[in-house]
Structure formats: C-alpha cells, structure tokens
Amino acid sequence: MSSFRNPLNDIPVKDQPLVSIISPSCNHEKYIGACIESVRNQTFPGWEMIIMNDGSTDNTQEIVESFIQLDDRIHLYNQENIGIFRLSETYNKALHISRGKYIAVLEGDDLWEPDKLERQVRILESDPGIILAWGLAQTLNETSGNYGSPFPASVQQDVFNNDPPGQILKALIFENPIPAATLLFRKEILLDAGGFQQTFNLPLVDLPTIFEMVPRGRFYFDQHLLATWRISHLQVTKKYPVEILKGRWELSRHHFLESDQKTRDAISITPEQIDRYFSDRLLISYARSGRYRLIRKDFKGARNDYRQAVFFSGIRQPLWRLRAITGLLFSFFGWDVEGLSKLMGRVSYKKG
User: What is the mean pLDDT of residues 32-47?
Assistant: First the structure.
C-alpha cells in the first residue's frame, strides 16, 4: 500500500493522531524496544503510543524514555503496580487521555506488521458501520524462537465480520478467535460500551470488551497477518489457565443469557451445551496448569492441579487424565516433564 495521509485534514499527525495505541507494560525490558520499533515502522504515521508502565522494577522505563527522545508520538505514564486483575483500570486510564478517533491495543511484549494500522484505518474510514477491525496473528515461542501458523486457522467470513451484529457470539462463547494484538476499535463506540471491561475475575480485558461490542455493530476481519504475540510459561494464559477458564465460563453464560431471542435462535446453542463444553475444558486447564507450575518449579502447586485433573468428576478426557497422572508422578520427584514433552514431539515452553 502507498503511504497514508491523515484523511481528516492537513494538521500534522503528531498534533492530531488518528489512532491511539494503548500499551500496558510491566517488566518488559527484553521486549519493549522491539514493540516500539514495530509501531514506529508503521506505514501509517498518524498515531500516538500511550505506554502504561505498571510499576516495572527492571529497565522498562529507561528504555521507553530513550525512544521518547527519538519520537514525540510516544508517551509514558508510570503508575504503582496494580497487576493484571485490575488491568481494566490501566487500560481505561489510557483510554481517557487518548486523543485518537480509533483505539488500538498492543502489549509491551508483542509486535505489529508494518501495514497493520494502514490496512485497518482505511477500512474503518471507508465504512462507519464497522466498529471494530481485527485480523490474523502468529505466535512466537519464547523458548524455541519458532513462529506458529497464523491464527485463526479457519475463516468464517460472515461470522468473523459479525454480520449481522450478534453473528460472532457463538465463536466467542466457545473459542475466542480474535487475537487481542490485532484489535482496532472505533473510540466513540468503545466509550459508549463503557470502555474496557474486566469481569468475572478474569486477568484480561480483551474478551469481556469484545463481548460488549458484539450487539453494537459489524466487525471487519482481515485475512492478512497483522501481529505477533509471544508465548512462554510466564505469560498470563499459562500462569492462570484455570482462573481464565472459570471466568470465561461465567462470561460466556452471562452474555448468552443477555442476548436477544433472535440471536440465540441464530447461533443455535443452549446453556447446557455451554456448561458441558467448559466442564470438559476445566479438566484440561487443571492439567495444563500443573505443567506450567512444574516448569516454574512450583511442585506443590503442580501436585494440587494435577490431582484436580486426575480426580475430576466423570469419565471424559481420558488422555488428559493420563497426562495428569504422569505429571503428578513427575511432581513428586521434581523430574523434568518438558524433557518428556520434547521426546513426544510436543511444544516445550522451558528455556534451556
């Protein structure tokens, strides 16, 4: 695509950014530089980057300040650490000081493709009925350095475009297909929805916020790689898989029951199907949590999680129960379960 000019007027983009990028960061000294560079490399120049430093104890602040000297579109706000279970406070603080017409999110350890903003701004500027744009993302395994295949793997265009509004609800209830790093919101709609949401004790804001956007308008799904997010045993989804699963269960049930009858009929699911799905996934989450705790050498916590999986009610998920039994044995002796994973050809999240 060609270089992008601010379509509103000829005011310099640094004085009137069209896009405000909210970037929460905590102890990201290894990654924040690459994150900022991926923003500075955007083919669309009309942005401001609001970095919310949540009490970092490493050199995150100093690294960000060095970039501020190079680019006055970057802004740093420091706060005492309030953590991920109050993440919506951090996001909404940035939202209310933002100046852009559109709001993007990019956590301090993630990356964008150079044309990410340009592609999405063109779409939102061309159609006022589109309230949210998103697209493909890939993972970067922190241990191996390998990239995963672009996600989501399958394309359901009408569903992913939320056309008509409510169409994407079924996908969100079961497996959220939307990578947070690819999101671009229309700010006025986001504010009307109450800003960034964090409900049911979830340590994340993207999914609860997207749920609130579903009935408000159409989305746009771009079948183009837009972002990369890092995965490791220390990331939120690996540290709190059980808490996230339980919160998603409550969140999904809530929004299904709050939806109108027409939407419920269109997506053809029942509360019983939701409960059965999440009950199955809870056993898997306990087993996964045990694995990640083993990597962090939290052997007592790993044993507790593996026991939950082994003795979970019912007879479902026999393979995962077997994995939990194996992990439980490893936890008693402090053995390296990741070594076994590698022998079995599975992805490892452990360095070294």
Answer: 98
pTM of the model: 0.84
Domain ranges (residues) in the chain: 19-235, 270-343
| % of the chain with per-residue pLDDT over 70 | 89
**Which tens digit of pLDDT belongs to each residue from 105-129?**
999 999 999 999 999 999 999 999 9
111 phi/psi in degrees, rounded to 5: -140, 155
Distance of CA 58 to the CA centre of its chain: 23
3-state secondary structure of 113: coil
* Beta strand pairing call for 74-79 and 130-141: unpaired
Backbone dihedral angles phi then psi of residue 286, each to the nearest 5 degrees: -60, -40
> Residue 270: is it exposed, middle or buried by C-beta count within 10 angstroms (0-12/13-18/19+)?
exposed
- State whether the Cα torsion 143-144-147-153 is positive or negative: negative
Please say whether the structural domain 19-235 has been given the CATH code 3.40.640.10.
Answer: no
204 touches 246 (CB < 8 A): no
